[in-house]
Amino acid sequence: MISKDIKRLLLMNASCNIIFNYIGIFVNLYLWEKNKSIFDVTLFNLVLFLSWSCCFIAGARLISLFSNRMLIRSVAVCGALTFALLSFLQLDNRALWIAIIAIPVGAMWGFYASTQNLTLCLIGKGRDFEGYFSYSSIIGQVVSIVNPIVFALVIQWIGYGGSFLLMFVFVAILLTVSFFIPRISFEGVPEPMFERMSFREVFVTPALRWMVPSCLAAGVFLQFQGLFALLFTFSVSQEKLVIALLNVLYALSSIAAMAIYRRLTLRPASGSASVWLRSRSAF
């Protein structure tokens, strides 16, 4: 069993997953449909991830001045601002219009990631972590399968404008959750949270230091792969339901690959471990 606080955190996770999945597919498609321009989609994602990075760092700092509740409300405000801008903002300069929309999207993701990590670390106890990540994985898989199909049908029925308004429901859930999540703050702590934290103290060995460039390289590759898959999907068909089904196929392929990976790693062939150890000792 997981605690009530973890359940509330999972509710926040589910709402954000629905919003992020919608933005990842249908907001990108909304931008693509205007001019069929790779530049438009690339600019949106570039500004989004720059904003995401800055706000992730800022979120970790802000919790030492305010509280996690304030950050959750910031996520909700950024979500509301995103869909309000998509609904009502009109500019002649399309590049500027795209950048203005991408900034609150990135801020929403950055603040969400930082507040989720810090809140979970401080309210989680024992098996709460195992339960949270298990349920979080299930939620992510369900959203990646169900969400694209549901919102493809919603957009076909009431258009993009109606789907933007529907997103406010999930924004409202986020705002509501912020009043029930346990309040966590480092305000008033004698020593600032990051006073003793530095690059050398975190990455203390040569092996750990190699993690930084390897993670950056992997991140660049994965973002390129995701953007390529997105543009390839849009070029295959303009039918929203077809695009949704292709995204569901991607999700199912990822789930199947993970299941195969776990089976291979958790059930190694007989004697494979000893062979691996002997090969390692040879070096």
From TrEMBL:
The keyword Membrane belongs to this UniProt entry's keyword annotation: yes
Entry superkingdom: Bacteria
Transmembrane portions of the chain: 9-31, 43-63, 70-89, 95-112, 132-158, 164-186, 207-235, 241-261
The protein's name: MFS transporter
Keyword line: Membrane, Transmembrane, Transmembrane helix
Organism the protein comes from: Gordoniibacillus kamchatkensis
Entry keyword annotation includes Membrane: yes
InterPro entries assigned: MFS_trans_sf
